[in-house]
């Protein structure tokens, strides 16, 4: 059974960089055609897809965040990471990591981490 | 971006009711829609993918249908565990986007 677990600071100061890591267990991040994603949910709001990384290193970022986002992968640790720069209070949200799966098309999320609340405040 | 619009935003229903949630896409997305259930303080859970494929382990009272721009999630007989918020999501084109959610409440 694949499991994902987010880790990282729960409090980030404005203008700084938010950094989160997702550790994958129960399966190799390098096997299969999966798109390891970050998704966030503002308090009481809907879901926003941030972007993905494939184990090959290919990435895609939501254009709304592209200038501030970097997603990377460390296959030796079975982890992938999110960096979001120049954060403001608008980036306060629960951040989820998730596995994007493929059938005839790719992009539905079958496994999710529990989520981690990141608050941007001085 | 493709906009996904769910209706209704809130739905009040009783145990045993048949419930239908609609999701409309701002442009055609073939059958590339997924549905998720989210309970307070929890991560979303995949219910349906490719518009009508039931995720393993999900009860058969959940079903999905549709193609093009209109999609539905149906719960054939609402159970106490089903009171939650439901989201649709398209993965036809980037960026992948979600609907705003439909909260299913106890009547």
N- to C-terminal distance of chain B: 35 Å
- Average pLDDT confidence of chain A is 96
Oligomer: heterodimer
Percentage of residues in helical conformation of chain B: under 10%
Q: For the residues shown, what is the average pLDDT of chain B? A: 97
Number of strands of chain A: 11
- H/E series of chain B, N to C? EEEEEEEEEEE
Number of helices of chain A: 0
Report the end-to-end length of chain A measured between terminal Cα atoms. Answer: 39 Å
- Biggest sheet features of chain A: 7 strands, mixed
Strand content of chain A: over 45%
Secondary-structure-based class of chain B equals: mainly beta
Any low-confidence stretches of chain B, pLDDT <50, length ≥5? Answer: none
> How much helicity do the residues of chain A have?
under 10%
H/E order of the elements of chain A?
EEEEEEEEEEE
**Low-pLDDT stretches of chain A:** none
Shape of chain B: globular
Q: With helices defined by DSSP (H or I, 4 residues minimum), what is the helix count of chain B?
A: 0
What's the total number of strands of chain B? 11
Shape of chain A: globular
Structure explained in plain terms:
The complex is a heterodimer of chains A (122) and B (107). In chain A, the strands form two sheets. In chain A, strands 2, 4, 5, 6, 9, 10 and 11 form a seven-stranded mixed beta sheet that branches. Chain A has a four-stranded antiparallel beta sheet with strand order 1-3-8-7, with no helix packed on it. In chain A, strand 4 and strand 5 (47-54) form a beta hairpin. Chain A is mainly beta and 122 residues long. Chain A is built from no helices and eleven strands. In chain A, 39% of the residues are buried. In chain B, the strands form two sheets. In chain B, strands 2, 4, 5, 6, 9, 10 and 11 form a seven-stranded mixed beta sheet that branches. Chain B has a four-stranded antiparallel beta sheet with strand order 1-3-8-7, with no helix packed on it. With 107 residues, chain B is an all-beta fold. In chain B, a hairpin with a 6-residue loop joins strand 4 and strand 5 (45-49). Chain B has strands at 4-7, 10-13, 19-25, 33-38, 45-49, 53-54, 62-67, 70-75, 85-90, 97-98, 102-106.
């Amino acid at each position: 059974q694949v499991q994902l677990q987010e880790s990282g600071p729960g409090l980030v100061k404005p203008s700084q960089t938010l950094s989160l890591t997702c550790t994958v267990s129960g399966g190799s991040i390098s096997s299969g055609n999966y798109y390891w994603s970050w998704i966030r949910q503002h308090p009481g709001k809907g879901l926003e897809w941030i972007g993905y990384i494939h184990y090959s290193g290919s990435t895609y970022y939501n254009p709304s965040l592209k200038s501030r986002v970097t997603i990377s992968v460390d296959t030796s640790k079975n982890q992938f990471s999110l960096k979001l720069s120049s954060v403001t209070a608008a980036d306060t949200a629960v951040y989820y990591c998730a596995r994007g799966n493929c059938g005839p098309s790719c992009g539905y999320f079958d496994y999710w981490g529990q989520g981690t609340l990141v608050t941007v405040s001085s | 971006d493709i906009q996904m619009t769910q209706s209704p935003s809130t739905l009040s229903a009783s145990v045993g009711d048949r419930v239908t949630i609609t999701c409309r896409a701002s442009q055609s997305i073939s059958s590339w829609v997924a549905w998720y259930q989210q309970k307070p303080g929890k991560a979303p859970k995949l219910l349906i993918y490719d518009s009508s494929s039931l995720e393993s382990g999900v009860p058969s009272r959940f079903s999905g249908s549709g193609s093009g721009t209109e999609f539905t999630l149906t719960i054939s007989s609402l159970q106490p565990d089903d009171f939650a918020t439901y989201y649709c999501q398209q993965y036809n084109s980037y960026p992948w986007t979600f609907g705003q959610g439909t909260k299913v409440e106890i009547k």
